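Dear colleagues,

As part of the handover before I leave the project, I'm documenting each prediction I ran so the next person doesn't have to rerun anything. This entry is a single chain, and its sequence is reproduced below.
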Amino acid sequence: MSAISPARSRRTWWSSVTSARGLSIVAIVIAVGTPASAATVLITAKQLAANSVTSKAIKNGSVTNADLGFVSVTSKNLAKGSVTTAALGAGAVTSANIAAGAVTASQLAPGTIPAPTPAFTLIDGMVTGSKLAAASVGASHLAGGAVTSSALLDGGIATIDLADGSVTTAKLADGSVSTAKLADSSVTTAKLVDGSATTVKLADSSVTTAKVADGSIGAADLAPAVGASLDRATTQVIPHDPWNGSSAQNYLDEEQDGTFIDFTGVTPAWATAGLLDLTTSPSRITITTSGLYQVNAAAGWNPNSTGYREVELVVNGVAGTPGTGTVVAIARTPGASNTTRALQAVSATVRLTAGDYVGVRVAQDTGSTLDLLHGSLSVVRLGSSPT
């Protein structure tokens, strides 16, 4: 057998190593010369140093299952995704191999989890809100009376959630029904408590004649009269005032002359506050409320048969200023007796405005002064002026 150089021997050995029975025996075939003269040299496991066979010395696909030692393949030797379902043996995957929470409902076969025997009963409070899927609880799942006021969001109940007739009197808070909540004409007579419609509840002019029962208004229901009454019982000297009644114009001029009765110091029989100021304006009654008034005046003269006597009701006439004011009533009579007093009276219904004032003007033409023994003036408001 020819000698083999060491270098050639090593090259032939590294290119010829194959696996046989877990590398327990390694056969290296060294060809020397021609195939006919080839010799075979066997190298056993004992002759291999530790870790002397590396991965590049092993031919691809030459390591079989039989070559693997017991528990020789660990998890770090497995490529990611290399273990397929087919590679798993029956029952190979145990609960210890499954990560916590890895098995979901979709991975369970139908009937995998049997119904408990006896049937499983939930303890009160066991199912919390976090265990319920969104919108999973419908009306059919709610027990009667299950939804209490504390479970409702403030403002959560809208009009469409209320059944017709569901809001009863007991559900309404006191004072919660305001004017804006009432439909027009919704409050009928039957809804009013007796005596609840007080004066302040009535609009101006809302009570018409048709609303007043016959005979229902007594003296106590009438508002106090608006007006005043003055009566002078002391003598007032009236100067002579010549009268020329020969023409219509002269007659009118005479109406504008005369003297106003002076009520200074007179205590009124009655008067509405604000109508009298006898200190500043002793000959007038001043109107404070517009309306329709009944105005009356009277004069009593000392007996004298000469000439004429005249009494006038004057609106807005100024004492001491002839020709002022509007005469609304007049009485002129001749002197008839030297022994009997001459009495005169006039009246008129007059539309007066707040601020107007009324007085009594008298005149006589006996040729000298004449005593007025008595004079009176009264005004009474009858009501609003007709339109």
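The longest helix spans residues 6-14. DSSP finds two helices and 13 strands in the chain.

All the best with the project,
I.
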